[in-house]
What we know:
Blueprint lengths: L1 H20 L2 H15 L4 E2 L9 E3 L4 E3 L1 E4 L5 E4 L7 H12 L1
Antiparallel strand pairs: 1-4, 2-3, 4-5
Amino acid sequence: MPHIGNRIIFSYNQKTIEMEEKEISEVLLDIADDLKRKGDQPCDLTNDCGEPTVFDARSELYIQYITLNKDGNPCALIPLGYLEDETIREIAKMVHQ
């Protein structure tokens, strides 16, 4: 039985290596497939304290949840409070139309 833990770790590391070698379009398809298998609920990317664990350097945003849009593409759900005030105001205008 003690070897089971080692197999799990090896399996995880092997999957990580495979992800690093794939084209990003393939990784996106894998994420979409995983989300489809999990159902309609967003995938939680926070730690046990509810803090986000994924940071996107390009957009400088923390990502708490991912989900599929109506076309089946994986999307990040970002709390509007992370955005600039003017961006939130523009969104509010569009929502109220």
